[in-house]
Amino acid sequence: MNKRWYALLVAVAMVGCGDDDGMIDVDGGSDGGTTDGSMMMPDSTTDAPPGMCADARVIELTAGAQQVTGDTSAAAASRTMSDGCGEEPTGQELLAFEIPGSGNVGVRFSLANDGTDFDTTVEVRPAGCDDLTDALCFDDVSLFEVRSEGSFIATGGTTVYLIVTGYDAESTGPWTMDVDVTPNPTAPVLTGGEVLFVDGARIQATLSGTDADGDVVGYVASFLDDSGAVIGLDLDEDPATPDDTELPFGFDADLSDMTTFTGNSRVGGLDGFEPLAAATQVRVYLYDAFDLESESMTFDLVEVTESGLEGPCVDGESICADAFVCEGEVCVIPDAAVDACEAATVVTLVPGTASVQTASIAAGDGALLASCGDTLGDEALYRVTVPAGAFDLIATTVRAANDVESVDTVVYVQSFCGDPGTEGEDGCSDDVGEEDLRSTVQLTDVAAGTYTVGVELWGGATEASTVELAITLRPVLAAGLPCDPTGAANRCADTECAGTPATCGGE
Q: 309-351, pLDDT tens digit by residue?
């Protein structure tokens, strides 16, 4: 089963060496075991122990947090990576991680930080620097993050090799790796929970537990029928491959450093799997950053319906849609969303002229959701008024200041701020094309009233960002009136803009 994280028990001791990287030991002490919360810079040695690859750089790890730095810009591409671990050879740096202590030791690493600015790949080789036995490849963190992170469990006193490289020939440069070492990692404990089946289309799980290491990542679910038999799902739509019976999911919020937790998870897209109609129970177990697993528990799969704003939310019968919370058995807009809506920037629109806004989008969670994309991140909101008359309302990030391939936005227009159900059929836009990640909402013949325009980065921002957003109130003109042939400043209602000078219905 593939999960977000992978684990490896390295039972064979190895020896290692490397060249001096100039790092210093910051208050490392003589015990080599603790960091009392401070960042450590691990030692790099210069003497090559027997049997070590000559190009390996030895990193003497200690328990706790530390950093390793390097630069692949001038590094050779001397090793062939395992299948799928990068497109082609590019600069590689070979690290020999000396695992401290004894027994099982968990190692987590991440290149997703300010010190790394390229598409990375990391291969972990437990059997030797040139041995692909049990090798693990770590590529992108997620759809939105092309830098790498991963974890494994090794035996104290052994050496594990890591190759730090780029995904392709264009991906190279300085890098910083955050490393955290956990002696004797323990598995999480699942203590209780509830799993709902919402409108036969998604599950909503609430799971409670404990984890001494504070590194629980997600859970694995198996659907069961009345007899307790596991239901298989053909996720890859290939009848020649076995059906999937264990499905790994993550939690909506990061539970890092939480030793006691309640994790929530909403998973959609299940309405296309007919076998789930027979599901009455769900068997669940937790897994952590090192792929250590809790004991499983089995919950009844409770079928409920989903309600929108001001709809019912009754235990065991109905729940609120994602954008709302339940108060007094009624679905309402969360306080955070109400506050965000009230703080929206007021923009006065001049008909026929684009009002250009520089939207500041912070890293982290937001308050509003949209109907057409993953908008869990922060949002920039603008309140506009459409007067009586004939107008279109257009909001777009298709601007020269926004890169076609890298500025991945979601734009939406809500007539009632905080309720994605008021966006209508055309009031939310993700990508304008297969290769253009920007967004355009165009509401034609919009009714008079107040509207909220929102812009977000798809999936949320990993760091504070700015996006240029243009909002236009475009007049809709009757026949005989002068018009803009490009359709940018205005458009004709029922005729073509033609003639010299250009008029609606002209020839």
A: 999 999 989 999 989 999 999 999 999 999 999 999 999 999 9
Length of the chain: 507
CA–CA dist 238, 234 (Å, integer): 7
Q: State the alpha helices, DSSP H only, in 51-191.
A: none
Tell me the C-alpha distance between 246 and 224, whole Å.
11
Read off the pTM.
0.70
Start-end of H helices in 287-441: 335-342
Q: 485: left (phi > 0), else alpha (psi -120 to 50), else beta?
A: alpha
CA 275 to chain centre: 29
Please state which of the four CATH numbers 2.60.40.10, 2.40.30.10, 2.70.98.10, 3.50.50.60 is assigned to the domain occupying 189-319: 2.60.40.10
Which sequence spans correspond to the domains of the chain?
43-183, 189-319, 339-492
Q: Give the integer Cα–Cα distance in Å for 144 and 52.
A: 37
The confidence score (pLDDT) of residue 33 equals: 33
* Strand 409-414, strand 391-396: pairing: unpaired
Tell which phi-psi region holds residue 173, choosing left (phi > 0), alpha (psi between -120 and 50) or beta.
left
Task: Let me know if domain 43-183 sits in CATH 2.60.120.10.
Answer: no
Q: Nearest 5°: phi and psi at 351?
A: -50, 130
